[in-house]
Design a protein that fits this description.
single chain; mainly alpha
Length: 76
């Protein structure tokens, strides 16, 4: 019983210390990711990619609609 209690206590201490260290690392990574995400150059690139994707989809929408309609007709 003593060995089991020591094992459980060791597990709890390891968990607490690991969680604390893990949380600090998580916060560092999270802060860095937030800084990158909020960078104006990144936001500009995201906006540009969104606009390009939107324009591409608008251009290809009629073809896509016809392809989907044909696939649905064949499936019936």
């Amino acid at each position: 019983m003593r060995a089991k209690a020591a094992f459980v206590l060791g597990g709890v201490v390891g968990y607490v210390l690991g969680t604390r260290a893990g949380r600090e690392q998580f916060e560092r990574i999270s802060d860095q990711a937030r800084r990158v995400w909020e960078d104006p150059k990144v936001q500009e690139a995201i906006s540009d990619a969104t606009q390009r994707a939107s324009a591409y989809l608008q251009e290809k929408a009629p073809d896509l609609q016809a392809t989907i309609s044909e696939a649905v007709r064949k499936a019936r």
